[in-house]
Amino acid sequence: MSLRLSTVILPVDRWHAGGRAKWQKAEELGFHAAYTYDHLSWRTFRDGPWFGALPTLTAAATATDRLRLGTLVTSPNFRHPVTLAKELISLDDISDGRITLGIGAGGNGFDATALGQEPWTPKERADRLGEFVPLLDRLLTEDSVTYKGNFYSADEARNIPGCVQRPRLPFAVAATGPRGLKLAARYGQAWVTTGDPKLYEEGTPAQSVEALRGQVARLGTACAELGRDVAELDKILLTGFTPDRSRPLESVDAFVDFAGRHRDLGFTEIVVHWPIADSDFAADPAVFERIATESLDQLR
């Protein structure tokens, strides 16, 4: 499969003051997909503008025609499968079948306590995701679902007419641990990683490549245990969180080198952050546009 290039647009701009223009520009530049983060607030952006993911994607769906759209990623931190399923079916309809749901266990950020709860441990987050994903799968493929679990319930939850995409919109499951990888292998149409977070501060790009090689291998093992061909899953790398940081966006050559090394590991989609000045995602917009329009030709 040829390598795809996508972008993630953080929801920090008012729609009529630059927000809509970014999504339309992403389509114009030829990105395969444009994603956004599904948070209530996030890291250094906490005290500034931050808009909701699903309304933003709904607006983006009406402002574009071909661009795939999605979350990177939605988590159980403040979502419930029943209400999320209804919103996703609506969004898939409005976009005419262009939605991918990136989904993961979440973390200890602001979302973890915004509803007044104590932050969950990694095990508790994994427990919830392990119930969340199968229930969401049912809600998006069955007309009526009744379910009683440890964390989530549904009582004759109706989702007619279902997704435009059949049997449902695709899941891109973010995971690095064994339980998450099993969920990706069973329910995912794609798998997402940001690399090994332990290497971000002190690791090297070479160490990161080896860590990612190990993650891809473990995904293959999880698929094999279920009798599934790992080649059926797209493998998505969300950049900006490996020791390379923003260096791949410094030039077309730097990006081609970075993307080529990760394509050789089996990745089918590379996601780069849309530049945001004075942030960890600052980049030269002109170079960014050249990467979007020129780099894939050099990787074929």
Entry summary:
It is built from eight helices and ten strands.
Overall description:
This protein has 300 residues and is α/β, with parallel strands linked by helices. 38% of the residues lie in helices and 17% in strands. The chain has 8 helices and 10 strands. It has helices at 19-28, 53-63, 81-94, 122-141, 178-187, 205-225, 252-263, 285-299, and strands at 4-8, 33-36, 68-74, 99-103, 144-148, 153-158, 171-174, 190-193, 234-238, 269-273. The strands form 2 sheets. An 8-stranded parallel beta barrel has the order 1-2-3-4-7-8-9-10, surrounded by 5 helices. It has a two-stranded antiparallel ribbon with strand order 5-6. The longest helix is centred in the C-terminal third of the chain and has 21 residues, at 205-225. 39% of the residues are buried.
Shape verdict: globular
Q: Largest sheet, if any?
A: 8 strands, parallel, barrel
Order of helices and strands: EHEHEHEHEEEHEHEHEH
Order of neighbouring strands in the sheet with most strands = 1-2-3-4-7-8-9-10
DSSP helix count?
Answer: 8
Poorly predicted segments: none
> How big a fraction of the residues is strand?
15-25%
- In helices, the fraction of residues equals 25-40%
| Rg from alpha-carbon coordinates | 18 Å
| Structure summary, number of beta strands | 10
Assembly context of the chains: single chain
From the N-terminal CA to the C-terminal CA, the straight-line distance is: 10 Å
